[in-house]
Design brief:
The complex is a heterodimer of chains A (288) and B (478).
Chain A lengths: L26 E5 L5 E6 L3 H20 L2 H17 L1 H12 L3 H19 L5 H5 L1 E2 L6 E9 L2 E5 L7 H11 L4 E5 L6 H11 L8 E4 L3 H10 L5 E3 L8 H8 L5 E3 L15 H4 L2 E9 L3
Parallel strand pairs in A: 5-6, 5-8, 6-7, 8-9
Antiparallel strand pairs in A: 1-2, 3-4, 4-10
Chain B lengths: L20 E2 L1 E3 L2 E3 L6 E6 L4 E7 L3 H17 L6 H17 L1 H12 L3 H23 L16 E5 L5 H14 L3 E5 L6 H12 L7 E3 L4 H9 L5 E5 L2 H10 L6 E5 L5 E4 L5 H13 L11 E5 H15 L20 H16 L3 E3 L15 E4 L6 H4 L6 E7 L2 H9 L6 E5 L3 H10 L4 E4 L18 E2 L6 H4 L5
Parallel strand pairs in B: 1-5, 6-7, 6-9, 7-8, 9-10, 11-12, 11-16, 12-15, 14-15, 16-17
Antiparallel strand pairs in B: 2-3, 4-5, 10-18, 13-14
The chains are: A alpha/beta (288), B alpha/beta (478).
Chain lengths: 288, 478
């Protein structure tokens, strides 16, 4: 017997900058890859989804209205805090995903670097996705990208931290806010990542993280009329078409479920950011 | 009317630990110059010597270029871009952490008000490193081809008006693109660059990636003429810029120049006058007018000239000139005796050529180099004060009747760095902006800078852009 009994963490949801339990009072058991008990995670409900969307919508005006420089600094700060908790995440990722420690360390390092990579995009997206348009008339015409709004994200099922960071950062860097459904079987690193965000100047509600059954939560998000876009990455193969159909009700922007899980360690590209942007074009006459 | 005077509110200079002497920063360490030469740098507000600084000769420049070449070939040019990015992010963070120290040092060495060094120079310098850090691993999306390559070793010569900020403008894009640097700060303001060298040590930047050679014009000439550079970037006078362009003729060294200016600040009859007055003041009296893009020619539509000048004079009378470290100071010291002499001489030519000088009541301190805010009316386009860059707090006022005349007068200069337009009518602003031959046009604002925004001139104000996505091109083989 050890001299001292460890104080275990209660894993809850991360909604509106706070860590509530599921309003349903439900939880489900999370085990390591080898079947060892790790924790009971909150099993979010339809109502938790709605609360999370309300929080995300509430955070949108301020977050999208912040300067791009400010958003970049905040995400970089999150990378700093993530790096500071490196050892904790290595333990969690190793246990959750059944990786050896070296492999898990590489994954955590890649997650930190991924956050830094996206932080650097904040004030550059408009410089690759915007344009001055040479229209045939005396008009000043330019196009700028703007965030689409509240984005639902079904996080990757197999990559609990690196995959999560790789799908959440591109959504929020441009000013969107997110409701994320964490990996169903490995949700613990996601909630700990919520603690990183909560201590990194990321305003409450910008990222909301739910744990539970993807199959239960995804249809609620896909059909929610105040969600503007959805990333179906973590959806079950057989569920994607139904979710896309539900998303059509308010013409959500849909990032489709990939046929195969990508190599999350590989260098990313800007596509995930561009998927959740609108283009606004402004005309203004020129003349005395 | 009762007068409420300001109590002194000086920023403490204790935060700055000046060393009596500074060596050259070469290959990651402070080293003595080969021939042992030094020069003094002086606080222009008090004429007090701040420190002795090494003067780099040709042998030192050669050593610095060699160190930069080794660092380029061995480390920096082949480093994974994401790792380069992280070094630059670190620099940005340490600049933020040590912001107050840099602000005080900058005001001591340069003479600019602490309000400006604290709120403009230092935060913008950090922001530049932060911005370009993000580009380091995203160059393939910057629009210069799929695999843009760095040039190699860059020689960079910077002026004394924004010492740290100019160092950031030069170093950040160069390093992000994968180049290594030899930086030559101005001889009257070397200290913030040398403090930056300490920051580079704190962030473990590999030796030789940035080398700093202090000295005067001779050091700059030795650097520019050194055959081992792939790139030269210069910010300074048009006269020296032309010499550098001649020096590099026939070589394969890439060159960008950010030179002088004589910006027109155009006020139309429908302009918001109070806002315009603030913009005019900011345009010419920011940094004592030691700004290459300063709005030094005020072009006012005739019908509003009288009310505008009245309000402008009222506003100028409230400007506070004095101790740069005082937080209420608007106008600090002129950077050097030589610069004061130049301003004084050009202002005298305004009197001699028939313009009318106006200065508010403005007592000058006994020691140090000072010039009061000055306004000339009745200026014609042929006057020297309308043609030559004064680089001081002197505003020349001209008038116009039609928008076409405003544009013709604004463009009647060999320079083309910046311009301002004041009008409530958007279409008129854009019409004017389209016709101005200037690299930056500010509308209903002036002297705005941001790392995401390209800056640079037309005509004899130079070529190439610094800042923004465009600023990368200067340091890429593109």
């Amino acid at each position: 017997m050890p001299d001292r009994l460890a104080v275990r963490k209660t894993y809850k949801l991360y909604v509106g900058g706070a860590f509530p339990r599921s309003e349903s009072g439900r939880s489900y058991e999370i085990t390591s890859a080898e079947g060892r008990f790790l924790a009971n995670a909150a099993m979010a409900s339809r109502k938790d989804v709605r609360d999370a969307v309300v929080a995300a919508r509430g955070a949108f005006a301020k977050w999208s209205g912040a300067t791009a420089y400010n958003r970049g600094q905040v995400l970089y700060r999150a990378a700093e805090v993530l790096e500071g908790r490196r050892a904790q995440f290595i333990d969690e990722v190793a246990a959750s995903e059944g990786r050896d420690r070296d492999d898990a360390a590489g994954t955590v390092d890649a997650a930190v670097d991924r956050l830094v990579w996206y932080a650097g995009w904040s004030d550059k997206i408009a410089q690759i996705a915007g344009s001055a348009n040479a229209v045939a008339g005396p008009y000043f015409n330019f196009s700028v990208p703007e965030p689409t709004g509240v984005v639902a994200v079904l996080a990757p099922q197999s990559s609990s931290l690196l995959g999560l960071v790789s799908v959440v950062a591109p959504v929020v860097v441009s000013g969107n806010t997110a409701v994320v459904v964490a990996s169903e079987d490995a949700p613990l690193p996601a909630i700990t990542f919520g603690e990183v965000l909560a201590t990194s100047d990321v305003p409450g509600g910008v990222v909301n993280i739910l744990t539970g059954r993807t199959a239960e939560l995804a249809p609620v998000l896909a059909s929610h009329m105040d969600v503007n876009a959805i990333d179906l990455h973590g959806a079950a193969a057989g569920a994607a078409t139904d979710l896309e159909q539900a998303a059509a009700e308010n013409v959500k922007r849909v990032l489709r479920r990939p046929d195969a899980e990508p190599d999350w360690r590989a260098d990313p590209d800007p596509r995930r950011m561009l998927a959740f942007l609108e283009t606004k074009t402004v005309w203004h006459p020129m003349g005395v | 009317m009762p007068v409420f005077d300001y109590a002194p509110a000086p920023e403490s200079r204790d935060i700055v630990a000046l060393r009596p002497g500074y060596g050259l920063f070469v290959d990651g360490a402070f080293t003595e110059p080969a021939d042992g030469g030094t020069f003094k740098t002086v606080n222009p507000a008090t004429e007090e010597v701040l420190a002795e600084v090494a003067e780099a000769g040709p042998a030192d420049v050669d050593r610095a270029v060699a160190a930069a070449r080794r660092a380029f070939d061995g480390v920096w040019g082949r480093m994974r871009p994401a790792e380069r990015a992280k070094y630059l992010f670190r620099i940005a963070r340490v600049l933020q952490e040590r912001a107050r120290e840099f602000a005080v040092l900058e005001s001591l060495d340069n003479g600019k008000p602490i309000r400006e060094s604290r709120d403009v120079d230092v935060p913008l310098a950090a922001a530049h490193f932060f911005y370009y850090a993000g580009w380091a691993d995203k160059l393939r999306w910057a629009g210069f081809g799929g695999d843009p390559r760095p040039l190699g070793v860059a020689g960079q010569v910077i002026p004394w008006n924004f010492p740290l900020l100019m160092a950031a403008w030069k170093l950040a894009p160069a390093l992000a693109a994968g180049n290594t640097c030899v930086l030559k700060p101005a001889e009257t303001t070397p200290l913030s660059a040398l403090l930056l060298a300490e920051v580079l040590q704190q962030v473990d930047l590999p030796p030789g990636v940035v080398n700093i050679v202090t000295g005067a014009g001779g050091t700059g000439r030795a650097l520019v003429a050194h055959g081992g550079l792939d790139k030269v970037a210069f910010t300074g006078s048009t006269e020296v810029g032309k010499q550098i362009q001649r020096t590099l003729a026939g070589t394969r060294t890439k060159l960008t120049l950010e030179l002088g200016g004589k910006a027109a600040n155009i006020v139309f009859d429908d302009a918001p006058l109070d806002q315009a007055v603030e913009g005019i003041v900011n345009g010419i009296f920011f940094n004592q007018g030691h700004v290459c893009c300063a709005g030094s020619r005020l072009l006012v539509q005739e019908s509003v000239a009288e009310p505008l000048l009245e309000r402008l004079k009222q506003r100028l009378a409230t400007l506070r000139l004095g101790d740069p470290l005082d937080k209420n100071t608007d106008i600090g010291a002129v950077n050097s005796a030589a610069q004061l002499e130049r301003i004084t001489e050009l202002a005298a030519s305004g009197d001699a050529e028939g313009a009318v000088r106006w200065q508010p009541e403005c007592p000058l301190p006994d020691r140090g180099w000072w010039f009061p805010p000055t306004l000339f009316t009745g200026v014609s386009q042929s006057h020297r004060i309308a043609r030559e860059e004064i680089f001081g707090p002197v505003l020349s006022v001209l008038t116009f009747r039609t928008p076409d005349e405003a544009v013709v007068k604004a463009n009647n200069t060999p320079y083309g760095l910046s311009a301002g337009v004041w009008s409530e009518k958007g279409s008129r602003i854009l019409w004017t902006a389209q016709r101005l031959r200037a690299g930056v046009v500010w509308a209903n604002t002036f002297n705005r800078f941001d790392p995401a925004s390209p800056f640079g001139g037309y005509k004899e104000s130079g070529f190439g852009r610094e800042g923004g996505r465009h600023g990368l091109e200067a340091y890429l083989d593109a």
